[in-house]
Amino acid sequence: MKPLSLEVMLARLYTDPALRAAFLANPVAVSRRLGLDEDTARALQRIDRAGLELAAESYARKRAARRGRRRGAACLGSGR
Amino acid sequence: MPDPNRSSHPVHPGRDRVGLGWRGELAAAILTDPESVDVLEVIAEDWLHASRREAAALAALGRVRPLLLHGVSLGLAGSEPVCRRRLDRLARLVERVEPEQWSEHLAFVRAGGIEIGHLAAPPRTEANIAGALANVETASRIVGAMPALENIATLIDPPASVVDEGTWTTAIVEAAGAPMLLDLHNLYANAVNFGTEPAELMHAMPLERVALVHLSGGRWIDARNGQRRLLDDHLHDVPGAVYGLLENLAEAAEQPLTVVIERDGNYPGFAQLLAQVEWARAALARGRARRREAAPWAA
């Protein structure tokens, strides 16, 4: 199986609160469980933890706002 | 045959201009006095599914004020190839509306089938630069015009980065031969969040390629560990420090600049927004005056 790329892993960390909590509690174990290659795992162990939490919360708010706009929109586009 | 190496209608207005992001909540006020702004910027994703009649209405707006088309979801700086279907839709919109310029962010927004929901900063690596350049080339070819490329704000210092933001941005913008959309609040937020002087970060950008400028505002947010970061939320007025950066940019840049103030909610009265347009014009004028004083032969 091809290891997850760093961008895919970041996307998962930004959007999956359970994975993010598990990763922040034990990054080595989660990296091993997901089969990350050595470079990716090493980079993620040094991640900006405060930034990860704040970015993930900000993205969650954006996704929620987008869902709200879609429900309320009469037409036109996917929104910002 | 469109030439993807140039802009749809290159931004060479011959003078500095200041305008607003077009939002439904502001439409009536803008149309009451359209000449209060020099230019309007429209979010492309709001119109990608527009009917022919709706696109014609947007094109008509472009005959009232020059239009810029701003994309937020292509993910040009992702390592994955940009979605062909999205590009086809964008190309059709550009053909119908004929904006003066289109733009997109240097960001990734999805990976491995996961939608992040907003603009994310990718790891700044050689591989990422190569992926971004391939995506910009594809986008330019399919849309028929080169996008202006925008720097994004990030709350997280992207892991595994081997170059800094200025080096990474310059490498992509220059190798692509693209104009740059320099978002001064994004730049300001990244500088204060990660310990760089804002002016220093600005001068690390390819300023000779800046054609468009974004201004906006934000607010401070707290992490659980007590750290604070500035969030670029487009819900607050443009801070004074960002007008200061605009003044410095106008002093440093030879070319005319087109500035757009972005506001996505928590709207103030329209007079307050127009006051910010005027402050931006004043900042540009001060910067240009300083430039003339420093090098009168170049004026």
Summarize the structure.
The complex is a heterodimer of chains A (80) and B (299). Chain A contains five helices and no strands. Chain A is mainly α.
Describe the fold and architecture.
The complex is a heterodimer of chains A (80) and B (299). Chain A is built from 5 helices and no strands. Chain A is mostly helical and 80 residues long. In chain A, 72% of the residues lie in helices and 0% in strands. Chain A has helices at residues 6-15, 17-25, 27-33, 38-45, 49-72. With 299 residues, chain B is of the alpha/beta class. Chain B is 40% helix and 19% strand. Chain B has helices spanning 24-32, 52-64, 84-97, 126-143, 165-176, 184-194, 198-203, 240-252, 270-294; strands spanning 17-21, 40-43, 67-70, 101-105, 108-111, 114-120, 148-150, 180-183, 210-215, 218-222, 228-232, 258-261. Chain B is globular. The model of chain B has no long low-confidence stretch (mean pLDDT 94). Chains A and B meet through helix 1, helix 4 and helix 5 of A and strand 5 and strand 6 of B.
Query: Which runs of chain B of at least 5 residues are low in confidence (pLDDT < 50)?
Result: none
Total of DSSP H or I helical runs spanning 4+ residues of chain A: 5
Count of individual helical segments of chain B: 9
CATH fold-type name of chain B: TIM Barrel
Please estimate the helix content of chain A. Answer: over 70%
What's the number of extended β-strand segments of chain A? Answer: 0
* Helix and strand run of chain B: EHEHEHEEEHEHEHHEEEHEH
Radius of gyration of chain B over all CA atoms, rounded? 18 Å
- For the record, give the distance between the C-alpha atoms at the N and C termini of chain A, rounded to a whole number: 35 Å
Query: What share of residues are in beta strands of chain A?
Result: under 5%
Count of extended strands of chain B: 12
> Sheet bearing the most strands of chain A, described?
none
User: Strand sequence of the main sheet of chain B, in spatial order?
Assistant: 1-2-3-4-7-8-9-12
